[in-house]
């Protein structure tokens, strides 16, 4: 039976945006350490990732941007935007991060991995075509989706982004195409400012950009409501050939950057929903890539919970019972979102989707 591929590398620890930056190497160190404690390691494989090529990056980014990031190589410090900086090895880490997500797509498409999790940094979903933004240098998931369209011949890719923040760069990369459906849940209004309900795509892409803007305080039940009653029906209507997840763990209840209230049970559940959708719709072809997550305990436990689901490891009886309760979560049901939030989403998306 094919295993879950975990893409990891110590080179990702070489990107250092400076002392006291929340997006620092310790984020991956705690995850990599946590992997050692996982039971069921037999279900995982650890292929060494390869860096993205210039051609891979140019499917999403401008040559000027690729050159700008390359020019940071070897410099102890460079400054790209108000909260995005680089160190000597950042370009190497960023190229490898984008390449690792490409590798994940390739392995999953070939069936040599059951699914995959790219445990990378820097994260990617804020990076725009022509500039770095919000801790992100290259848009890893967008580069992988563009690769899968062009090199693997796929025609429909669903990108699910459950990071606290809206993935402006990913939205903009595919705003005018129906070959990528971008689905994002995020705190709104909040950084980076985009992600309104009205941003639904344009031209051939109209309807293929689905934003679910949320106030703070959303817990496991609230997210389960959205995944059960909004994401799942849209995914079934879209019939993707591969699912990619921008997995952000900054919706954890103790995250310093946000006020969401998701626990590791919630992360296991969200992963289970997308895994089940992938099994139903696209032969299980699913990859996750790490975006945010700044509470180190929540980040580690959330990632390990997701990985456990991907690899089919048994949950504890307590977690399994809590997850079973989340399958019942819905709008207007106890603990779920208010029924009128569903009505608002339904109204906004009725020209394109039945939800
Ligand atoms: Zn984030």
Q: In words, what does this structure look like?
A:
The protein has helices at residues 26-36, 54-58, 63-70, 90-110, 140-151, 168-173, 220-238, 264-281, 296-310, 317-326, 339-349; strands spanning 4-7, 44-45, 78-81, 84-86, 115-118, 157-161, 180-187, 209-214, 242-247, 286-290. The protein is an alpha/beta fold. It has a single domain, classed as Histone deacetylase domain (Arginase, Chain A), CATH 3.40.800. The protein has an eight-stranded parallel β-sheet, sandwiched between helices. It has a two-stranded antiparallel ribbon with strand order 3-4. Strand 1, helix 1 (26-36) and strand 2 form a beta-alpha-beta unit. The longest helix is centred in the first third of the chain and has 21 residues, at 90-110. Zinc ion (ZN) binds next to loops.
